[in-house]
C-alpha cells in the first residue's frame, strides 16, 4: 500500500510504524457507507502482512465526530425500497467490526467526538479504546425503531450492573467518565494530546504502555452515582413494562427522565432490545452477537417502525413518530420471538479461537 491512499471518504496511510485509518466524511459526522467499509477492510488486509506496520490507529476527520454511525439515508431508502441494500451494508459492516476486534496487531481507536451506533462498532471493540473530553457515546437505536447492533449488545451486557440495559432502553448518551466506567472505553486522553500520542506510537512504542502514558482522569461518571436506582429498576426485570413500572415508583428526576425516554421509543424495538441484551450476557464471542444483530436488523427492515423512526428523527425532524403498534401491551411475545428466528441466509463470520471475553 502506498504512503497515502485517498479513497475520498477513507484515508489509509503509513506513519512510521503506524497504519493510520481515518474515516473522512466530516460533513456527515463520518457516517459509514459501503465504500468506506470496504476501503477499511482492504487496508486492514494489506497491513496484516506488512512487517513495517506494528499498530493500527483508527480516527475520524474533523473535531465533531469520530463516527456517528452507519449511513442512515441508505438504511431508510432500503427500508422503504430494496432491503437487500441495507443488508449488504450490514454484512460488510459486521465483518469489519469482527475484523477489528480480532485483528492480530493492536488497534488503537481514538473515539474523539460523537461516537454512536456504527462508530461504537468500529471503535469500542478495538484493543485500546480512547475517548476525549469531546466524546459522546451512545447506542440510540430504540429511538428510531431499531435495536442496538454492531456487537453493541455484547458491550452493554458487560457494563457494571444494569447500566448497559439502562443505556440500551433509554438511548442514553455518555461522556468520557461514564464511557470508561461502563467499559465502552479504556482511557481518556485530552484531544490536544492525540497528535503526540500518534507520533509516539509511530516510533514503534508499545500501544498499551504508550496510551496509558498520555491518559488522564476522565472526570465524573454520573451513571456510577446512579447505579443504585438503575440496578433496582432493571435487575431481574423480564419485561419493559416491569422496568417502566419500577422507574415510575422512584420519585426522583432522573428515573422520571428514563421513563420519558422509554415511553418515546418504539415499543417493538424496546422489547426486542431487552431480550437482545439479556441474551448477549451469555455470549462469549463477538461473532455470536453479530449474527444475532443481523437477524434483528433484517427483520426490522420489514417492520414499519424503522422507516418511520428515521423519518421522524432524521429526515422530517418532527420528533413525532407513529409507532405500529403504538404501545408495549400490543407487542406480544410471539412478535418478539420472530425477530430472533434463524434466517435462510445467516451472517457467516469465521470465528477464531480467541473468545471475546479473553480478547477484551
Short description:
By secondary structure, the protein is of the alpha/beta class.
Notes on the protein architecture:
The chain is of the alpha/beta class. It contains 18 helices and eleven strands. The strands form two sheets. A seven-stranded mixed β-sheet has the order 1-2-3-4-6-8-11, sandwiched between helices. Strands 5-7-9-10 form a four-stranded mixed β-sheet. 52% of the residues are buried. It is globular, with a radius of gyration of 20 Å. The two termini are 29 Å apart. It has helices spanning 34-48, 72-80, 83-102, 118-123, 152-157, 163-170, 176-181, 194-202, 207-214, 222-225, 227-234, 240-248, 253-264, 267-280, 286-301, 304-315, 333-340, 356-359; strands at residues 4-6, 10-15, 18-23, 55-60, 65-67, 107-111, 114-116, 128-131, 136-138, 173-174, 187-188.
Annotation keywords:
single chain; 360 residues; 2-enoyl-CoA Hydratase, Chain A, domain 1; 4-stranded mixed beta sheet; disordered C terminus
Can you tell me the overall shape?
globular
Class in CATH?
Alpha Beta
| Biggest sheet record | 7 strands, mixed
Number of helices: 18
First and last CA, distance: 29 Å
Q: Which helices and strands appear, and what pairs or packs with what?
A:
Elements: E1 4-6, E2 10-15, E3 18-23, H1 34-48, E4 55-60, E5 65-67, H2 72-80, H3 83-102, E6 107-111, E7 114-116, H4 118-123, E8 128-131, E9 136-138, H5 152-157, H6 163-170, E10 173-174, H7 176-181, E11 187-188, H8 194-202, H9 207-214, H10 222-225, H11 227-234, H12 240-248, H13 253-264, H14 267-280, H15 286-301, H16 304-315, H17 333-340, H18 356-359
Parallel strand pairs: 3-4, 4-6, 5-7, 6-8, 7-9, 8-11
Antiparallel strand pairs: 1-2, 2-3, 9-10
Amino acid at each position: 500500500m502506498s504512503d497515502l491512499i485517498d479513497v475520498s471518504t477513507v484515508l489509509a496511510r503509513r506513519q512510521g510504524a503506524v497504519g493510520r485509518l481515518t474515516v473522512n466524511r466530516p460533513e456527515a459526522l463520518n457516517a459509514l457507507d459501503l465504500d468506506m467499509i470496504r476501503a477499511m477492510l482492504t487496508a486492514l488486509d494489506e497491513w496484516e502482512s506488512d512487517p513495517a506496520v506494528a499498530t493500527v490507529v483508527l480516527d475520524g476527520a474533523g473535531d465533531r465526530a469520530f463516527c456517528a454511525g452507519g449511513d442512515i439515508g441508505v438504511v431508510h431508502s432500503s427500508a422503504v425500497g430494496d432491503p437487500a441494500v441495507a443488508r449488504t451494508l450490514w454484512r460488510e459492516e459486521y465483518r469489519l467490526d469482527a475484523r477489528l476486534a480480532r485483528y492480530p496487531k493492536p488497534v488503537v481507536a481514538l473515539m474523539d467526538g460523537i461516537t454512536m451506533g456504527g462508530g461504537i462498532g468500529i471503535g469500542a471493540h478495538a484493543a485500546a479504546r480512547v475517548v476525549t473530553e469531546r466524546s459522546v457515546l451512545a447506542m440510540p437505536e430504540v429511538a428510531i425503531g431499531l435495536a442496538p447492533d454492531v456487537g453493541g449488545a455484547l458491550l452493554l451486557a458487560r457494563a457494571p450492573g444494569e447500566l448497559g440495559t439502562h443505556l440500551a432502553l433509554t438511548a442514553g448518551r455518555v461522556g468520557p467518565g461514564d464511557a470508561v466506567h461502563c467499559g465502552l472505553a479504556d482511557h481518556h486522553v485530552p484531544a490536544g494530546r492525540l497528535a503526540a500520542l500518534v507520533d509516539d506510537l509511530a516510533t514503534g512504542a508499545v500501544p498499551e504502555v504508550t496510551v496509558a502514558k498520555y491518559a488522564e482522569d476522565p472526570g465524573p461518571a454520573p451513571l456510577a452515582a446512579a447505579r443504585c436506582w438503575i440496578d433496582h429498576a432493571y435487575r431481574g426485570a423480564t419485561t419493559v413494562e416491569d422496568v417502566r413500572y419500577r422507574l415510575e415508583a422512584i420519585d426522583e428526576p432522573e428515573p422520571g427522565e428514563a421513563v420519558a425516554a422509554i415511553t418515546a421509543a418504539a415499543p417493538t424495538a424496546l422489547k426486542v432490545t431487552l431480550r437482545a441484551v439479556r441474551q448477549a450476557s451469555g455470549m462469549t464471542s463477538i461473532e455470536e452477537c453479530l449474527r444475532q444483530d443481523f437477524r434483528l436488523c433484517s427483520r426490522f427492515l420489514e417492520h414499519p417502525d424503522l422507516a418511520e423512526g428515521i423519518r421522524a428523527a432524521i429526515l422530517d425532524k418532527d420528533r413525532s413518530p407513529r409507532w405500529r403498534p403504538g404501545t408495549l401491551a400490543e407487542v406480544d411475545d410471539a412478535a418478539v420471538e420472530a425477530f430472533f428466528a434463524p434466517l435462510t441466509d445467516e451472517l457467516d463470520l469465521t470465528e477464531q479461537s480467541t473468545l471475546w471475553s479473553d480478547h477484551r
